[in-house]
Design brief:
By secondary structure, the protein is an alpha+beta fold. α1 (about 85-105) crosses α2 (about 110-120). It has one domain (about 5-120). The protein is built from two helices and eight strands. It has helices at about 85-105, 110-120; strands spanning about 5-10, 10-15, 15-20, 30, 30-40, 55-60, 65-70, 75-80. β6 (about 55-60) and β7 form a beta hairpin.
């Protein structure tokens, strides 16, 4: 499982909104936090699927949890109460998506074929 050798970059405030209504000069306050995580080559996405290369992941912390997304065009994401839980869920989602694409290999649209190609390059299926 992801025993995650990951590195996070500095956090940044996102979704800035006025501090309060009716003030002369509303000041923005962050509504959520954004970090970057770097998953190194060989990181296990699940017990039998290591990464073939590094993967950059965006982590967005809000009041309800952590959302992990990649910069791939695939629409997969991970969710959890912690960064590690969100990254673990993201890994499971990416592996599950690749496995579903492989199972339907003869019936894929061009966009799904492109996703499968990217995921095959990223994930070692042994």
């Amino acid at each position: 499982m992801i025993g995650i050798p990951y590195v996070t970059a500095e956090s940044f405030g996102l979704n800035l909104r006025p501090q309060s209504a009716g003030t002369d000069k509303p000041r923005p306050v962050p509504d959520e936090t954004f970090s970057l995580a770097y998953l190194d080559k060989g990181t296990l996405l699940d017990p039998s699927h290591p990464l073939r290369s590094f993967l950059m992941v965006a982590l967005r912390a809000s009041r309800t949890g952590i959302l992990a997304t990649t910069f791939l065009e695939a629409e997969e994401y991970g969710w959890g109460d912690s960064q590690e839980a969100a990254l673990k869920d993201l890994g499971s989602s990416l592996v599950g998506y690749l496995e579903s694409l492989e199972a339907r290999s003869g019936k894929l649209a061009d966009s799904a074929l492109a996703d499968r190609k990217k995921l095959r390059a990223l994930i070692d299926t042994k």
